[in-house]
Amino acid sequence: MPHVESAPASNGPPPQxxxxxxxxxxxxxxxxxxxxxxxxxxxxxxxxxxxDAARLDVEMSAMLKEQLVKVFSLMKPGxxxxxxxxxxxxxxxxxxxxxxxxxxxxxxxxxxxxxYRDERAxxxxxxxxxxxxxxxxxxxxxxxxxxxxxxxxQYVWSRLQSFSAFRRWGDSEQxxxxxxxxxxxxNAEGLYRAASFFNLLLFLYGGRYKTIVERxxxxxxxxxxxxMNRAVSFEYMNRQLVWNEFSEMLLVLLPLLNSSSVKKFLxxxxxxxxxxxxxxxxxxxxxxxxxxxxxxxxxCQHRYCYYCLRTRCLATSSYRCTRCNEVVVAIQRQGSx
Length: 337
Fold this sequence. Notes:
Keywords: Membrane, Metal-binding, Peroxisome, Protein transport, Transferase, Transmembrane, Transmembrane helix, Transport, Ubl conjugation pathway, Zinc, Zinc-finger. This protein is mostly helical and 337 residues long.
């Protein structure tokens, strides 16, 4: 009977602390997989939505201003013109009061599903972070500073520009103090425009803080709801695009058309059968009434009112008779020699 030898074990028994060493090696990996609250969730807010929200807010303010001006349309002309900066500031204050002050988005931000978040107090990691959009709204100090800088700043700057232009600070014959103040105003405007342009470049690169005020206040626009689509009907957008293209085509083609030739071509189709009657011939073909001061067009000698014929001839150098489509070269009072 053959003898079968068992194969010797390739490895010896593990050391006594092998389980402990392996546990220590895998423990950091297990903690990193189990504790996902330490992972920072990156968020990206559409820059187009932020620009659209700002534009919608401007349009909303313009609509409110138009309705308010209509209320005073029967009053003294130009009454609201001298108080236009105050009117703009009042409307901007109303929008701020009933939106940002009460922790609600502005009309433009609401349409674009955006809201302001205090970036200083926004949680980066933690159990409360699920989508990266969590975070409190603006604090009271941020809201007040936003109103002072945005509403009050625009009002003060508008009044300063109108006052300096009215006082003619930039004229050379003005006093040195006025010219120096005008130079300071121009330098401040140039500095602000340069800072705004630099902030725009930073916004296009990073997608944060559309304006300088938002960057100073650390007020960032984030999505109000992570699962909300833009409520814009494509049917309405298609109609708007078709109408815009059609109107642009008409604006291009209408100046190229000869209106006199078109009227002459359509005249046989639109001419009334009773147009040649004596009653119609006696009436003015423009106002369709009996002429109070009858004048005739030369050389066709058709009868018109003086004011109707005179205004048409002054408006158009080569006015054509409404009845026969012949060029009117002169007018003459009926019955005169």
